[in-house]
């Protein structure tokens, strides 16, 4: 019986996240205060007492979810014994810090840089994402490929029957219409800042690449299943390469879920706000044990 610890990405945030940790765990309070110092603003005020709108800003959302996830993992102490880890998009950075591949401080600086670079890319080119429900992945991929005059790609393979697409406003509109014609249960535009995990994030990827290359990574304490290839990685050089590619490549969560199950995972512990990833993994392994990490 193997334990997989999984870390959520953007969209899992909620007002009040992390406050219980801050109030009850001295180590957590220390780490949150260090984060306020590194970021140059009191992100804890926005996390604990801000508005939904505050938390929806990419530059706030990403470090907030990272902090909640990583500080919760650290607070578990000796209980945190992963056989494998994975994170959805942003969550991959949380997973790497929790698995001791990079330091908390370096991870936070990278996440802040990532969020700012992505926000800039979003503002430069109006773009969006949409969830397509009830179609095979191949059908959705073919729809995206059939649209030649706009950018639209498969971005998040979340679970069987749920694929998020990403691209220009016109491209997403066309793809949603074609998906409905093909029999999709829903083609739902998402309330996001831009086309994450698509070629439109290339400026952000180029900006972040240098910061990732200059960050010290060590071999993690267990394999990290990375978004880009859904494979268990332990080599720091390869991990870096995959982290750089991640911003423009698809999140292969369906494939990661299947790979972790194939490699013996039967218990999945979600570390961070919400329980979205457990719901996705249940579509692959209905009889597994699913736990939300608690202090």
In short:
This protein is 48% helix and 17% strand.
Using the coordinates above, name the CATH class of the largest domain: Alpha Beta
Give the helix level as a range of percent.
Answer: 40-55%
On the 0 to 100 scale, the average pLDDT is 96
Strand content: 15-25%
List keywords for this structure.
single chain; 295 residues; alpha/beta; Malonyl-Coenzyme A Acyl Carrier Protein, domain 2; Alpha-Beta Plaits; 6-stranded mixed sheet; globular
Question: Would you mind describing this structure in some detail?
Answer:
This protein folds into 2 domains: 2-123 and 199-292, Malonyl-Coenzyme A Acyl Carrier Protein, domain 2 (3-Layer(aba) Sandwich), CATH 3.40.366; 126-189, Alpha-Beta Plaits. It starts with a strand and ends with a strand. The protein is α/β, with parallel strands linked by helices and 295 residues long. α6 packs antiparallel against α7 (104-124). Helix content is 48%, strand content 17%. The strands form 2 sheets. The chain has a 6-stranded mixed β-sheet. Strands 4-5-3-6 form a 4-stranded antiparallel β-sheet. The radius of gyration is 18 Å and the shape is globular. It has helices at 19-24, 26-39, 43-49, 52-56, 58-75, 91-98, 104-124, 137-146, 169-181, 202-213, 236-245, 253-262, 276-282; strands at 2-7, 84-87, 127-133, 152-159, 162-168, 186-189, 224-225, 232-233, 265-270, 289-292.
């Amino acid at each position: 019986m193997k334990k997989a610890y999984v870390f959520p990405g953007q969209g899992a945030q909620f007002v009040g996240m992390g406050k219980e940790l801050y109030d009850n765990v001295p180590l957590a309070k220390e780490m949150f205060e260090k984060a306020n110092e590194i970021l140059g603003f009191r992100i804890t005020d926005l996390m604990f007492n801000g508005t939904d709108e505050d938390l929806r800003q990419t530059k706030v959302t990403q470090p907030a979810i990272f902090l909640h996830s990583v500080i919760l993992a650290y607070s578990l102490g000796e209980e945190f014994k992963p056989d494998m880890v994975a994170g959805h998009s942003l969550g991959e950075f949380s997973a790497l810090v929790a698995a001791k591949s990079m330091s908390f401080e370096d991870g936070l600086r990278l996440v802040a840089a990532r969020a700012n670079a992505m926000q800039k890319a979003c503002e430069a080119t109006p773009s969006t994402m949409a969830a397509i429900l009830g179609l095979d992945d191949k059908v959705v991929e073919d729809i995206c490929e059939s649209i030649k005059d706009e950018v639209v790609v498969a971005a998040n393979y979340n679970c069987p029957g749920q694929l998020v697409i990403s691209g220009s406003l016109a491209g997403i509109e066309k793809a949603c219409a074609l998906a409905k014609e093909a029999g999709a249960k829903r083609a739902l535009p998402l309330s996001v800042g831009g086309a994450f995990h698509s070629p439109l994030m290339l400026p952000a990827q180029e900006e972040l690449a240098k910061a990732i290359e200059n960050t010290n990574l060590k071999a993690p304490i267990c394999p990290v299943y990375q978004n880009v290839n859904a494979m268990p990685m332990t080599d720091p050089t390869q991990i870096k390469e995959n982290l750089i590619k991640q911003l423009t490549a698809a999140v292969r969560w369906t494939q990661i879920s299947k790979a972790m199950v194939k490699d013996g995972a039967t218990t999945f512990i979600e570390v961070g706000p919400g329980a979205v990833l457990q719901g996705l993994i249940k579509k692959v392994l209905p009889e597994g044990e699913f736990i939300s990490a608690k202090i």
